[in-house]
Specification:
CATH superfamily: Electron Transport, Fmn-binding Protein, Chain A
CATH class: Mainly Beta
Catalytic activity: oxidized coenzyme F420-(gamma-L-Glu)(n) + a quinol + H(+) = reduced coenzyme F420-(gamma-L-Glu)(n) + a quinone
Distance between the termini: 32 Å
Number of domains: 1
Shape: globular
Family: Belongs to the F420H(2)-dependent quinone reductase family.
Largest sheet: 8 strands, antiparallel
Organism: Marinactinospora rubrisoli
Protein name: Nitroreductase family deazaflavin-dependent oxidoreductase
Length: 133
Amino acid sequence: MLYGAEHVKRYVETGGREGHDWRGAQVLILTTTGRRTGKQHSTPLIYGRDGENYTVVASLGGAPDHPQWYKNLVADPTVRVQVKADVFTAEARTATEEEKARLWPEMARIWPDYDDYQAKTERSIPLVILRPV
């Protein structure tokens, strides 16, 4: 099963033919700029759609702290996204509470574990909106 760096590698090499469809969900590759190193970091993430925008969840499996990719995009919201063979620049932002209330149920439908992750952590798990630019 694909996961982590191997997932990114195979996804990029095959234009998403391998890795886009994963365990019943669809995955994109999010590339952020490291807030301390300035290096590019690519992460495979389950996504949803909201019109032209893409939505991802900064769950880290319900860990007590936000994932590094989320901290990176808060520091520098200009990101690169790959969906299948389509690669584009996007502006990332944390959904407002109203947007999250509307979008979370769809993300939990796509990946039901998100509700479990939220239940096991005290932090409010961010939902991120990726707007192609």
